[in-house]
Amino acid sequence: GDSVTQMEGPVTLSEEAFLTINCTYTATGYPSLFWYVQYPGEGLQLLLKATKADDKGSNKGFEATYRKETTSFHLEKGSVQVSDSAVYFCALTTYNQGGKLIFGQGTELSVKP
Amino acid sequence: GAGVSQSPSNKVTEKGKDVELRCDPISGHTALYWYRQSLGQGLEFLIYFQGNSAPDKSGLPSDRFSAERTGGSVSTLTIQRTQQEDSAVYLCASSSPGTGVYEQYFGPGTRLTVT
Fold first, then answer.
1. Does residue B38 contact residue B88 with C-beta atoms inside 8 Å?
2. Chain A contacts of B109, Cβ < 8 Å?
3. Longest Cα pair distance anywhere in chain B, in angstroms?
4. Interface contact A49, partner B, CB < 8 A
5. Can you give the pLDDT of all 113 residues of chain A as single tens digits?
């Protein structure tokens, strides 16, 4: 079945450091890919998305590029802030799944001042 | 406009009791999803509604779990004879397939604790 694998956390960085969170997927169809973020005490929020190969999703300084050849959708940010501390989830959905999201296990990011 | 709302925000119940969790989706969103977030299992899909019908119930973990949606809007997730392993945060999301990318908007969740 379809699945998503994320790098394990927790990840601890200093403010202004470069962030990469790896995400790879397995899908029988042609998936749409997402990154969701969950800030402490809050609900899941869509961070960015990409629907076809080579699309780049971006939001709030975060970027991820849909790489079909490597089945990857790695999340990057050039300079993290303390306010970026959260849990990040990579997810996919395909048309034949009715839109249901399949999530990775989540990666906790902690940014220290 | 208003986002997805869920009630109650917290529920503590005794093992063996039944519970009902409610979800109010964003107005006009035809698709509604239930997920469960637990420490051991991460985020798991439970059930999906398109309008009032549920074409995908594959994630419901047992026959103690059921859900319905009425009027193409509010949905209720019912857990009968709760067990301690049912303790989790239950999340509801809605989307409008017209976006073409199934972008889902999540509610704040209901934290269920079974004692």
1. yes
2. 43
3. 42
4. yes
5. 889 999 888 999 999 999 999 999 999 888 999 999 999 888 899 999 999 999 999 999 999 999 999 999 999 999 999 999 999 999 999 877 778 899 999 999 999 99
